[in-house]
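Minutes, project check-in
Item: structure for the 215-residue chain
Input as provided by the requester:
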Amino acid sequence: KKTFDSIVKSIDGFNTSGNKSFETDLALFSHSDSLNLNYNQLVNFGKTIFFIRHGVDEGMVDIFNVDKFDKSFFDLKEYLLKSSFFLYLLSKYNFTTINLNLYINRGVSHTRNFHFDSKMNQFKFFVYMSDCLALSDGPFVYVKGSHKNTMFSIMNHKFSHFFKSRTDTPFVSLLNVVPLLGKSGSAFIANQSGSHFGFPQKSGSTRFVAVLSLK
């Protein structure tokens, strides 16, 4: 709680400063509409980036490489990577990028709709760092089986040139939509080539999620 209070205080201080970006020895604070870096550049940046999103996911804070900012997250990353489950994944797939982000959603009501991150196998390991027990808390939502070559995935790829983003997946099987709910400390892994999105929150809700990306 002490760590999260400190991080939130830093974010709020930046947001009220009126600055578009601000850099310290440990981190870069920036709004998404003023930082011209692609995803790979964000991941490989030399320090932690506090990335405040605008537009879709308005208000969400995506903290890239949070383990470089706070030792407790470095310890969490090391703990996960040394687990037998991760050792199995690393032996099975040829992952080249491993980074730890922290997602902070506070009353984010306009989230991106169903989408996929990559057509290739890309896994993300999620750890809820706060209780996410109801839809109003904004849980991660996944469409079971959507990483496979189904009728819905074929339709999404066929009509993708009509969508706002080529990775949007508006055609999903509603019977297979599953919100992932759990108490703080709950963890799950998802193949991000499948359809997923973050459920919109109600005002006043807060969700912290640590996300380890394997690509």
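Outcome recorded: The CA atoms of residues 14 and 170 lie 35 Å apart.
No further action items on this chain.
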